[in-house]
Each structure stands twice: as structure tokens, then as C-alpha cells.
Amino acid sequence: MVPAVHGAPTAAPTAHATAGHGHGHGHGAAIAPPKASGETTHAIVFREAGKLGTHKASLREASADEVVVDTKFSSISAGTERLIYSGKLPGFPMLRFPLVPGYESVGIVARVGPDVTEVSVGDAVFVGGSMCYTDVAGVFGGNAARLIKRAAQVVPLHGIPLAVAPLLALAATSLHGVRRLGDVRGLRVCVLGMGAIGQFAARFLVAAGAHVTCADVSAARLADSPDGCERLDVSTVPVDEALHDLDAVFEATGKSELIAACARTVRPGGSIVLLSYYDELRTPFVDLFVKEVSLLVAREWAHPDLLAARDLLAAGTISVGRMADHIVPIADYEAAYRTAFEDPSVPKVILQWA
């Protein structure tokens, strides 16, 4: 069962969630620039808005509490990375190019600092982004062949296959959103949008005992939704005509104009959980007002969500379906990004580094 956690504060990672290791020395103190180690790593870069390439990036020195990880697989965040690629990531008005994108990487620990006790050389771990470069920015820095991260922030995989493990970030983000609703046992809920975030949310909800309807315009995505849920094709009937008096809707399309329709499907006092990351919210207020609907905003995963999602995946409680099926060699990175950004039939694109 999915453990219910109440009041946990998910979407594009914030800087504090992905930063590898702080170098500040107190409030108001100048931040010393990172010292180059002399090592370099092959990295994907956005050279400027709309321009993709690769770069031999300079790595900083690792601290005593950090690990060096050789990347085996990473995945492309079609939502967040597309916004970064466009140069218009909300909350980051001064994006500094060139930059290394990505925050969904897995690999093998190659070195550990003298203060590290959490993991050992040879361990397979998940790395949620890395700020480890001296000559390019990291937003969020995960798509590179070698990464540096605080040992306390990496997640040992506990047997999850390396090619599947990049999905941990999406799984944890979805779990974080499900937990925003508290105990969902017996609740009637709809997940609107069966992309990767919606797929994981539906799986966690079914496992937690909710009565789930999965809704999407794509028959292929609906076919991938988990056993135990109802399926609704909203290309033929609007969600607010097909469903009524739900306890909650999980909005996972990223289209804020659908919030009003979500409000019309819930009971008075029901909830809408916003699983997506929005540039701005555009929705009529009246539908929310009349029913006193609660909007629950779900930020990105916190570290406990990663651990919980890891354990559920490792135990086989949650399946990944076909979300890890599209694996592309790093040499074909340009085609991989085209697919991730332009082909909605592919739920996730995973890059194979070695």
C-alpha cells in the first residue's frame, strides 16, 4: 500500500532541491567560485535558447561528503527541459546559457569522499541533478557522463534496473502529489492526463485503495493505464459531462484552462490536485467558488518521496508499464530530444550513456 502522508508539500525542480553542494559561508558572505578539478565530462548542453549541442564540461572538485557517479542512463523531461530550451522557464527569468539540463540520472558510484558513509564505490544510485561544472551552468545539470553529488542526496537503487531507474523522479513527483490529498482509501478520483506523471499517479492511487478513473484523449495512453482503474476517452465526451461528484481530480495535462472542467466534476468541497507545472493559471473562478473547491499545488519531489517511490518500485508494488521502453544511445541525442519534445505517443525518452 502507498503510505498516506498528510501535509507534505511537486513539477519543475527548484534550485534548492537539485543543487549538489553549497559553497556559501553564511548570510551575506560572498560565494567562492568552484575550483576546477582538471577533469572534464561529456555533457548535453543548451548553448542558447533553441540550440542543442554537446560540450566537454569542466568538473569542479568534489567535497569530502560527495560522491562521483559515472552515468549509465538519464531521461529527458519533456516538460521542464522544453521550457528551459525555449529560454522561458518560469521562476528562472535570468537563465544563463550555455547550460546542462536534466535531473533524472542513474549511474555507478566511481569515487567517494572521505566523509561518505551512505554509499560505496560500485553502488548503483539515482542522481537528481548536479551543480558540478565550472564553465557551464547546471539547470539542472544531470545530462552528463560524470556527476558530483552529496552522498546524502543520492538514492541507492536497491535492485531497480538501471534503465528503469531514471523514472524515479517522475514516480516521486507523482507520489508527492498523491500524498497532498492525504489518505485516499475509498475516494472516487480522476487522473486527467495519462502522460508519465499521470500514469504514476494512477498507479499510486490504485495501490492506495482509491477508485480511479484515468482520462485522456489518447487511446494508446489509456491502454497503458494501470489495471484496476476505469478508462475514459475525453476525445469523445468531455470529462465534466462524463464524471460527477468525485472527491478529487488530479490535473496532469499541464493545461490550466481545464481546471474549470475539473471543478465541475468534483463534489462540493472536493479537491483538484495540480500535478503539472504551469506558466500561469488561467481559469474562470466561478466554478471553484460555487463548490468551494480546494486547489492543492504539488511541488516537485522531496527526498523522502524518492525513497518511498524507490521502495515501491523495487518491491514490484508499482509497475512502469512501457514508460522505460524508448531508450536511445547518447550518440543520437538530437533525435532523442526531437522525440521527447515532439512525439506525445512516447511517454518517456531515456538516454543510454554507457
Labels describing this entry:
354 residues; alpha/beta; Quinone Oxidoreductase, Chain A, domain 1; Rossmann fold; seven-stranded mixed sheet; six-stranded parallel sheet; disordered N terminus
Word description of this protein:
With 354 residues, the protein is of the alpha/beta class. The protein is built from 10 helices and 17 strands. Helix 3 crosses helix 4 and helix 3 packs across helix 9 (303-314).
What is shown here, in short?
This protein is α/β, with parallel strands linked by helices and 354 residues long.
The CATH topology of the largest domain, please? Quinone Oxidoreductase, Chain A, domain 1
Approximately what portion of the residues adopt beta-strand conformation?
25-35%
CATH H-level homologous superfamily name of the largest domain: Medium-chain alcohol dehydrogenases, catalytic domain
Question: What structural class do you assign from the helix and strand content?
Answer: alpha/beta
Question: How are the elements arranged and paired?
Answer:
Blueprint: H1 15-18, E1 36-48, E2 51-60, E3 66-76, H2 80-86, E4 99-100, E5 105-112, E6 124-127, E7 137-138, E8 146-150, E9 155-156, H3 168-179, E10 188-192, H4 196-207, E11 211-216, H5 219-223, E12 230-233, H6 239-242, E13 246-251, H7 259-265, E14 266-274, H8 286-291, E15 294-297, H9 303-314, E16 327-329, H10 333-342, E17 349-352
Parallel strand pairs: 4-7, 10-11, 10-13, 11-12, 13-14, 14-15, 16-17
Antiparallel strand pairs: 1-2, 3-5, 3-8, 3-17, 5-6, 6-9
